[in-house]
Amino acid sequence: MNNLTSYINNEIxxxxxxxxxxxxxxxxxxxxxxxxxVTEDGIYIGCVSKENVELLNSDALVNETRxxxxxxxxxxxxxxxxxLEIFAKNESNLIPVLDEKNTYLGxxxxxxxxxxxxxxxxxxxxxxxxxxxxxxDKFSMSxxxxxxxxNNAKILGLFISxxxxxxxxxxxxxxxxxxxxxxxxxxxxxxxxxxxxxxxSYLNSLKERSDYLDKYLNI
Length: 219
Description:
Elements (H helix, E strand, L loop, with lengths): L14 E2 L4 H10 L4 E6 L2 E7 H4 L20 E2 L4 H11 L3 E5 L5 E6 H9 L2 H4 L3 E8 L5 H9 L5 E10 L2 E8 L5 H9 L3 E4 L2 H20 L2
Parallel strand pairs: 1-2, 4-5
Antiparallel strand pairs: 2-3, 5-6, 7-9, 7-10, 8-9
């Protein structure tokens, strides 16, 4: 699997602060981007958005509209989950990539980062997914790993997928098809099962049918 930085794109050069708004408008007509980076002497100074550029005077210079710039970016050292978060927070399909001195290196496209995500074991490898919930002060990643590994399975991916009040929701992908023992162990450790595996649901269905038959026979 490639490192995320191998997806840094330089196909289109950034806008310069001395470019005209007309040039920026043309760029957005030619390419399906929501934002595009602006540089001054190779240093990133912000992004212009398609939405704002469409409303600006085409004769003006990009530099004259700095107060419209949006200043989100990522570093080469950021992990892909953090990069995805920046995409989501800024509702953008392009993000500038900078080094530690704010030198502009290129950009990530959302489609490429999603492709990178699809190549991770979390999505690529076969396995089952369990979503569990517990109070934040009683939950630990090491305990989740221990529960999975004590049942002779391996974790392919694990992340906190939601936080509501004092409870955290954890999504775990496990390299095993028979997950019922793991689910039962989570329950013994007082985790609530949010998303039940098919096998666990099947056992619940059998129990419901058995209870129904018991009631029927006792009529």
